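Sequence of site-specific DNA-methyltransferase (adenine-specific) (Heyndrickxia coagulans).
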Amino acid sequence: MDASRYKDYMLGLMFYKFLSDKTLETFKVASGIGQMSEFELVEAYTKAKAEYGEMLEQMIQNVLGYYVSPEYLYQTWIKDINSGDFEVQKVIDSLNHFERTIAVSGDSDDFQGLFSSSTLDLTDTALGSNLNERSKNIKALILLFADLNMVALQKGDVLGDAYEYLIGQFAMESGKKAGEFYTPRQVSEVMAQIVARTSDIKSIYDPTVGSGSLLLTVGKHLDEDAQKNLSYYGQEKNTATYNLTRMNLLLHDVRPDKMTIKNGDTLSQDWPEDPERPNEGVQFDAVVMNPPYSAKNWNRSGLKVSDPRFEVAGVLPPDSKGDFAFLLHGLFHLGQNGTMAIVLPHGVLFRGSAEGEIRKRLLQKNYIDAIIGLPSNLFTNTGIPVVVIILKKNRKFDDPVLIIDASHSFIKVGKQNVLQEKDIAKIVDTYVERREEEGYSHLATREEIMENEYNMNIPRYIQVNEEEIPHDVDAHLLGGIPQRNIDDLKVLQSTVPDVLKRSLKEIREGYVELLKPVEEISNDVLSDARIVEISKEIESKTKNYIDKYWDVLRNVDKSSSLTQLMDEMLVEIKQILSSFQYIDVYDGYQIVAEIWKNTLAHDAEIIKSSGFYTAGRTREPNMVTKGSGNKKREEQDGWVGSIVPNELIAKNLYSDERKEIESKKARIQEIETKLSELVEAAKEEDSDEANALGECLNEAGEAFESKSIKAALKKASKETVEYDLLKKVEKLFADKSALNKAVKADEKALKESVQECILTLTNEEIDNLMYEKWFGNMVDAIVGLEWKPIKKELDTLQMLHNRYADTLSAIDEEIRDSESTLEAMMSELVVEE
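Predicted 3D structure, token representation.
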């Protein structure tokens, strides 16, 4: 089954498990029931339903906005699977029943067809050629989520993140189809963080909503009160994706009455409409969209320029490219004080004809607030570079348009280009501060834009800084490094000018040469008192920063906002580093962002619910996948610490045991070296080793065979060279085998000791281990940021030295010498008849 199709089944069933778990949890809390097994809870819910009927369902519906009846629970499917009573029809009945249980302002139409056969067709032959095969595969899918507690996973948005992750993975597998339902996280973040700066956001709209990730990302960046009151609106043409949107929003704890999602073509007919103001359209505080790029034949409905959505442009976008049609639709629904962010292909910035006229109108009316150029190959479904356009309706007449060229800021992950956290932060900060930076951002005035005839192609406004230093002809001819290149080493000239000057000698006016190797100059620079002093100051401030947040992180509780805490830490590290010249504050931002991504986000969530030291002494099953195909299964392989890594416990608390294991492994390596040497000796003809051991080599001639050695020993005469060599190999084999067994036993014992140790760690041990886990490398990494620009310039100095080391005259002389040598050799040649 194609990935884009399979996702509907997998995500749909995962979502239904969530609905069932939420229903049971709500019943449990409302009934005041204590601890009981899931099976007992289902039984209690079934009895309560029989006793209270609709009153119970209404109660759950009032809390959640929906409910799942006992007979339709996911848990009931599992019970049927276990008892052998499972029927596919019961799953179909359960899914069909759900939409009748959801209440949205008295109108359930908003959730009609959520599990429709167009999305989850459980009779599809792709699931199996006959009912028995389909039943088998559907049961396997259901059991995928049987052991997951979706309510527990929803806390801290773990479930939401997992759902978004799966959508992203399916997007990568689906190729071109991915653009229908997924916006890469980093692009969503750029748009959402900018839009979320708008004050007092109560409503948000995405006219090409896809899976809903853009809406949810904006919501995530609002404070908790704003999130509770936020109304989500969206429209999606693809029915399966439209269903995915509604599931995704519900799964992220958006109440049904706070979402209005429509299945329809955004461009063919305006939506949403205000019946009382038919020509104005419903206005939203924020509009975000990632529409299909350059959609062809978008105007199948024969829309006219008189359509109120397009009146502002005075002309219809070309039928062959729908980019501006989507933009104008979104702008039409943007409130007077709102912000809109749309991602489009670069062509909208410079294409002419009707699109040029629309762009001119938008600029003249002062709606375009910023243009952000992003790298190519960010999306799974297209390699073209894209641009995010920010629009506002309340800009001052003389406000310039901010242009940001972030197209060169990315890392490569597999085949995709990816924006790092620091790249996103720099874009957002540049937008918020509306700052100019050479080669990165520019504020384009109205006059400047008019001079360029409303062409907004980014290279017209921002020239990328050339990294390549131009070659100097004189230096190539006569040698020496141009002094102007030395003057351009701004960091070295600013911090240690005297050290640099002492390392150079002028050989003629405007040209210098090195008095010592660059490696020695590097040592002089990095050991200079001024550089050392700065390093100490950075180290001190970083340690104070860590100490401050170390206490905060250990004491997070259920009332703590981890998102807010992370933002505080990221902002503060930028503030600390901004006081040091030449350090890129965003490199420091990335260091802290990665600590959060790799450890803190996971650990802090666990600490919130159980406390720091309790979490430190908690372990969980280490589940591993074994086998393949039909025999593929998950098994427990020991235990791992919930937050304290087993590896750190072994490293810090069992160092003697680890040294002993490493010592034995070193001895095994020595034995293998000796055996390799004997193998090589046995390949040499007429050697003692060849005579004694040659016939004991395997077919490839790469190792001795143990059986052959033993057989040869039985035939060999004692007190001969042959016997001694065979006995030597036999002993090496025996020693290696004994050591391998010892290492295996030691590693097993160490592993078991570490697993038991988790339960008895002292508070002090947990402190030391967790400090190392979270911040072990941070001080060195932050201090290293000071050296980064210095080392870059020292590398440039080395490059300049290498470039001009061989002058043209020296090369000419070398050629002449070579020619003379060749001529002398030629004259000595004698041609014999």
